[in-house]
Every structure is written in structure tokens, then in C-alpha cells.
Amino acid sequence: MFDSPADAWYVWIGLSLLGASLVGIVAQLPDGPPPDAAGPANAVDAVAGSRHTGTGTYPLSADAVRIESDRIGVRSGDEAAFETLAYGPVTPVREGTMLWELLRGARPDHVFESPEAFDEALDRARARDPSWRVSPDRLSVRTVSWDDIDATLVGA
């Protein structure tokens, strides 16, 4: 009695509009999971929270990573996620610096002339403005001690 006839023109227009809106909704769904910043942050905390010197790596599947002294950020496409570090501050390390050599396993006394030079390099690295590092394949973490200077180096 209150049914609409299936051959009425307004039923077909309504179904067409409904179908078009469903296509629009499906097209805007994300094509992958959101970036995970907790994994890299946990890897940094595992090394930084140890009472002994140590190293660690974490494979990254994000498009870019941002390392700050107190948090890690990952970005995939238009989405970014940040996670605060439990054991900070850490020292962000850029490729091509002397601290990068330490992150890769060199001894501090082979890279720097003195503990003071090492401490100055740490201060410069921490003072740098953080930036996104594009297409990293892994995050590396290393704790380094020289005399009374302790540092957690993080780079990608």
C-alpha cells in the first residue's frame, strides 16, 4: 500500500545518487593502516632504558621519520603519528656527521679528540631543528659513554 513502484523515475534517480555517494565514501577510505610511531619509540626506549650500553635497530615502513629529543614521529602519505619517549632526551643524529660514525659502531675516542669535543657535538645535534628524513629503511639506536658523558644516539 505504501510501497513505491520500482519503475518510477524518482526511485531510479534516488538509487543512482545513493550509489554515487557510496562510491565517494569508498574512494576516501585510507588505502593502508595509519603509521605506527609506538614501535620505533619502544625500540628507542628499550635501548635508552638499559643500565648498560647497547644498540638496537627497528625496520621502518613509513615514508619519513622525524627524530626529536623527546619524541619520534613517522609519516605515511598524508598521515603522521608521534610517540613520546619514556627515556629521554635522546640525541638525533644525521648522516654524514661524526655522531653518525658513533651510531654505526665507532668508538668515541677514535672519532673525537676529547670528551669535551664529544659533548659539544651532542649539544649541537640536540640544538638543531628537527626535520623529516625521507625514505629511511631502519631506525638505529646506540647508547654511548665516554668519561662522565652518557648519550643515546638515534638516527635513520
Description:
The protein is α+β, with helices and mostly antiparallel strands and 156 residues long. It has one domain (37-155). The protein is 34% helix and 28% strand. It has helices spanning 9-27, 38-48, 98-103, 108-111, 115-127; strands spanning 55-59, 64-67, 71-76, 79-84, 91-93, 132-134, 138-146, 149-155. It has a four-stranded mixed beta sheet with strand order 1-7-8-5, sandwiched between helices. A hairpin with a 2-residue loop joins strand 7 (138-146) and strand 8. It is rod-shaped. The mean pLDDT is 88.
Give me some keywords for this one.
156 residues, alpha+beta, 4-stranded mixed β-sheet, 4-stranded antiparallel β-sheet, 5 helices, 34% helix, DUF7283
Tell me the layout of helices and strands.
Blueprint: H1 9-27, H2 38-48, E1 55-59, E2 64-67, E3 71-76, E4 79-84, E5 91-93, H3 98-103, H4 108-111, H5 115-127, E6 132-134, E7 138-146, E8 149-155
Identify the overall geometry.
rod-shaped
Order of helices and strands: HHEEEEEHHHEEE
Oligomeric nature of the chains = single chain
Averaged pLDDT = 88
Short description:
It holds the Pfam family DUF7283. The protein has 156 residues and is α+β, with helices and mostly antiparallel strands. It is built from five helices and eight strands.
